[in-house]
Amino acid sequence: MTTLFSSAQLAHLREQKEHDECLLFLSGPSAAKVPEALLRTKDIIAVNGSAGHLLDRGIAPFIYLVTDGRFPLHQCEAFKRHVMESRFTFINQEVYDSAPPSLQHWLVEHCFILRELYKREKSGPLKKIKYALFCAQNPSVVMEVPFSRKKRIRGFSKDITIGYCNCKTVAYAAIQLAYSLAYKKIVCAGFDLTHGGQRFYDQQTGTAMPSELTQDTQKIIAVLRFMKERINPPLFTLSTTTAIPYDIIPLLKQESGE
After folding, report:
1. Tell me: the pLDDT tens digits for 13-68?
2. b/e for 18-31, b at 16 or more Cβ within 10 A?
3. Residue 204 and residue 207: Cα distance in Å, rounded?
4. Where does residue 175 rank: exposed (0-12), middle (13-18), buried (19+ CB within 10 A)?
């Protein structure tokens, strides 16, 4: 049995922060346009292959986050490099369970493991009653749990040690992680949901994995709107080409010299 990320470990990470602001360095094409000077002024949470872009420029992510079990299997050497050269690494249970036994032992030694609070956003009445009771016992997890089978669960965890809510993209897990770390401002780079789910680093490495972002875009936006209305985290975007409305994630204009 794996040991999940704990409250004591969260408190320790909060003490390790170097900046009040966090930059989520994601996978959309606009991430590659962020000036290096700006990347060096914030704590960075990088995901999947985006960490390689930073490391190649001598920028070590504060946190490296992977929630797709396919990435360590398809790009194992790159994944291990990203883990070893980032300060801290988070994976979820899926990444651990998808790994062969030899890799699982290595993951336990080098990564924090997060709990995914639900895998399927649609489920029957009994499971939805279970989720509603769970939220009543854990007020840091805010969920909208409709009883119709056709409607989706939408949620946000303000305490990552309890777990995180799924939203078809690692970016949403990164937002909940950054919120739990109590950053005063969370800035997204590469949260585009455009170009058919294209990842900027796939063009650099030529090792593309399948993406379902195009078909999931409206589902993701619906959950982000729920997040905005119920939580309203200090969240901004640098992307001037994004499918996410700016009333949900406002555009942050870069200051002169950044």
Report:
1. 999 999 999 999 999 999 999 999 999 999 999 999 999 999 999 999 999 999 99
2. eeebbbbbbbbbbb
3. 8
4. buried
- Cα dihedral 229, 174, 192, 107 in deg (nearest 10): -150
Return the DSSP state at 251: B
Local structure of 164: helix, strand or coil? strand
Q: Which residue(s) pair with 24 in the sheet?
A: 45, 188
Residue with tokens 């016992």: 137
Helix (H, G, I), strand (E, B) or coil at 108: helix
Per-residue confidence band for 195, with pLDDT thresholds at 50, 70 and 90: low
> The pTM is what?
0.92
Helix (H) or strand (E) holding 136: helix 125-137
List 185's β-bridge partners, or say none. Answer: 21
Beta bridge partners, 149, equal: none
The tokens of 11 are what? 């408190």
Report the alpha-carbon distance of residue 162 to residue 229 in Å, rounded: 22
Answer for the pair 249, 186: CB distance below 8 angstroms, yes or no. no
Question: Phi and psi dihedrals of 168, rounded to 5?
Answer: 65, 5
